[in-house]
Design brief:
4 strands; TTF-type domain-containing protein; two-stranded antiparallel sheet; 134 residues; Znf_TTF; 40% helix
């Protein structure tokens, strides 16, 4: 997954089916409708695996700590389509995903560029004051 620059969410791809269960096996595959409910999902067509794009991007940039990383959505990939939605919900709740969202998506939007902050401060300094005490 190195070199990953954009999320992959193929809608018109023929997703391969996998067999689940021993007694009465069922064929299951990735469901592209999951992209709407879980916009962070990234699908690897070559390996039939799902990843968390947000966590992968944040980890690549060193924005989340290694102790909080969930390997199944970050490096190993996820493919248990039988329990997929419960695992997706479980993934987006813990510290790793929340921290990745905060540091990768929310923080850059809420944090002003240092140049903008300094420029605004300098403009304020240059304004003439009307409270002259001379």
């Amino acid at each position: 997954m190195e070199g990953l620059t954009c999320i992959n969410q193929p809608v018109h791809f023929k997703y391969p089916k996998r067999s689940f269960g021993k007694k009465n096996p069922e064929l299951r595959s990735f469901n592209p409708s999951w992209f709407k409910s879980y916009p962070w999902l990234h699908y690897d067509e070559a390996n039939d695996l799902a990843f968390c794009f947000t966590c992968m991007a944040a980890a690549k940039e060193g924005k989340i700590s290694n102790s909080k990383i969930d390997g199944s959505f970050l490096s190993a990939g996820f493919s248990n389509w039988k329990d997929a939605t419960s695992k997706f919900r479980k993934h987006q709740d813990p510290d790793c995903h929340e921290e990745a969202v905060e540091r990768k998506l929310k923080l850059p939007r809420e944090t002003k560029d240092i140049g903008e902050v300094l420029s605004a401060a300098r403009s304020e300094e240059k304004k003439p004051t009307t409270d002259s005490k001379c």
